[in-house]
Amino acid sequence: MIKVVELFAGVGGFRIALEGIKDVNAEPTSDKFDVVWGNQWEPATKSQPAFDCYAERFKGRGKHLNEDIALSWMEAGPHHLLVGGFPCQDYSVSRSLKNEQGIQGKKGVLFWEIMNIIEQEKPPYVLLENVDRLMKSPAKQRGRDFSVMLRAFADQGYTVEWRVINAADYGFAQRRRRIFIFATRTDLNHSERARQADPEKWLLESGFFAPAFPVHELTSEKHPGSQFELPKDIVEISDMFSATYRNSGIMSGDQVTTIETLPKREVPKTLGDVVQEVYEQFGPAPEQYYLDTDTIKKSGRNEQEELAYLKGPKKIERTSASGHVYVYAEGGMSYPDSLDLPGRTMLTSEGTCNRSSHVIEDPQTKKLRYLRPEECEGLNGFPYGWTATMTDRKRYFTMGNALVVGLIERMSHRIAEVHEQEDDQNILQEAIQMQLLGTYNNFK
């Protein structure tokens, strides 16, 4: 059994996939994974609806903490797999005044808390999720943040592979692009196979992601790949280094190979499929989700007209703080959203009167409405009704932050395959020995 620690757990997307949960009240169906420790904490708010949902759905299974990860990560204990969808922040670093070992001035605090656990526990496998702009940030030093992360993993003795995946490309109901990062300790068989393989062939055929998310043999001609050596000094990377990262890549040792892979697209589930499933399970959409055509807003438009304006093309003359006059232009969006396509990327503001919210023509009434919370769950592949423990506003928010469960489910099969080729009896013992060695070296 693969022991799992889940960080930034939200309402449990990683865990649903790893444990094979198909229904709100269903027991786990997977005998491969055991989530022994999970942490979810939303700072600056007394209410913790995401954690409350997580604790209710996984009641009696593993330990759940609603605490600042900086104060609680020491309790995680030995585990095989560390997972989490961590916030995207600024990862710049600086050396201490006396040029001592270690790094100060870290701004991407939560990522460094992940690295604290990795340094302490040395888990064999790490699987992380983030927005794909991580590879391009910051704008003035493209690729710096991702390079800092790779260097941090290398310093802890890990091989790293990544892939940017659009869920709709592989049959799922949402056009949601996210980067997934899979790291393995360098002493493992998987890392050794990666070292010996041709990097490009590994990414296209035999690595971690390719078997679960097939790509074409040819890479993008428009976006050529590259190979380079990552500097050993993480402060140098933070201060000076930049790189162009493509949607697939691997770091083995200090060597980085990155290429733009082309997915072998599968027929996706549509937004209409999700809407129909929710209708069959929950009945007609309540009136509260339909657009208001009576109340006039300050703009002089009702809600339906306001959304038509917000989603339409426009050119607006604006004046900057310095007095510079410029034209702000915005392209049009589908209004209403097509039921014959996968949904667009959901944001945390879903269900409110703004440009990014989905608006559909209800198949039964032919009137315009927002998505129901259950439909948002469906776009992410969650069991319908999973977030019914909280208010609608929080349900929309948590689904805007969530991942597509089916992607992790595919990855879970790959993790199980990788693990089967390792010595499960010794894999955690080796981690403990590595911890002790690190403690001894620090003591010296």
UniProtKB/TrEMBL annotation:
Keyword Aminoacyl-tRNA synthetase carried by entry: no
Gene Ontology molecular function, alphabetical: DNA (cytosine-5-)-methyltransferase activity
Gene Ontology BP terms: DNA restriction-modification system; methylation
Family: Belongs to the class I-like SAM-binding methyltransferase superfamily. C5-methyltransferase family.
Protein name per its UniProtKB record: DNA (cytosine-5-)-methyltransferase
EC number(s) stated in the UniProt entry for this protein: 2.1.1.37
TM region(s), chain numbering: none
Keyword set, alphabetical order: Methyltransferase, Restriction system, S-adenosyl-L-methionine, Transferase
Pfam families: DNA_methylase
Catalytic site positions: 88
